[in-house]
Specification:
It is built from 4 helices and 10 strands; from the N terminus they run αβββαββββααβββ. By secondary structure, the chain is α/β, with parallel strands linked by helices. Strands 1, 2, 3, 4, 5, 6, 7 and 8 form an 8-stranded mixed β-sheet that branches. A two-stranded antiparallel sheet has the order 9-10. The longest helix is centred in the middle third of the chain and has 19 residues. It binds zinc ion (ZN). The site of zinc ion has 5 residues, from helix 3.
Length: 235
């Protein structure tokens, strides 16, 4: 028979176990292909890792300007996209582990000339915009939508590259046409949640963070794209 003391000790161990942080998980590249989504096929890829205080998702894009796109205007567009796209995707949801500890999901969009997950052609005024064709004037929500495809997400509008099965319109979703109102939903992080559960073995779930972010949702500092060195000047 187990004594009162044993029960208390077991309880203490259980509490400590439940409150314990998830072990850090090194950054890993996840990738795959989506085939034949209403005639569309694309490759998705990104890095994900669990650091001490956050789930960090990194998408690295090599921008290839078309003739006539100047260095300075490209840099201005990249800087704007990076800040705004990270703002749209970061600090909206957290992964919560048993015991209540939350790890905000933070997205880092990095522009680099080497080691990229994706190449994107950037034109001044091309007639198409998709995951690999962007235009200098594209709004951040539009680019955030294309980054969503790089994370392995389908379109969420009637004529888009939709998932098979029934269709429920959600016009505010970042995956709606044109990026909607840039709203990120829990379903958009299912792949990341699955990775988290698999790596940590924890029954984690996604919980929303407050409107406009949360004290936990620190931002990723903006980097600087430097094609000559292939390095991204991130602190
Ligand atoms: Zn799309």
């Amino acid at each position: 028979m187990i004594g009162e003391r044993g029960v208390t000790l077991a309880g203490l161990v259980l509490v400590l176990f439940l409150a314990a942080p998830a072990a850090a998980q090194p950054r890993q590249t996840l990738s795959g292909r989506i085939e034949g989504a209403r005639g569309h096929t694309w490759r998705w890829a990104f890095d994900v890792g669990l650091e001490r205080d956050a789930v960090r998702v990194r998408v690295t894009v090599h921008p290839v300007p078309t003739a006539g796109v100047g260095r300075a205007e490209l840099d201005r567009a990249l800087a704007r996209w990076e800040v705004e796209v990270e703002r749209i995707w970061s600090g909206t949801w957290a992964v919560r582990v048993p015991g209540g500890r939350r790890y905000p999901v933070l997205l880092d969009l990095a522009f680099a000339a080497r080691g990229e997950h994706h190449q994107v052609v950037v034109s001044r005024s091309g007639d198409r915009v998709d995951a690999v064709h962007w235009r200098l004037g594209d709004a951040p929500a539009v680019v955030a939508h294309e980054v969503g495809h790089m994370l392995g997400l389908y379109d969420e509008y009637r004529d888009g590259a939709r998932a098979p099965g029934p269709f429920e319109p959600d016009p505010e979703s970042v995956m709606a046409q044109g990026g909607g109102r840039g709203r990120v939903r829990a379903r958009h992080f299912q792949r990341i949640l699955s990775w988290f559960r698999q790596r940590t073995g924890l029954e984690a779930e996604l919980v929303p963070l407050g409107e406009g972010g949360d004290v936990l949702a620190e931002r990723v500092p903006p980097g600087r794209y430097d094609s000559s060195s292939g390095q991204r000047g991130e602190p």
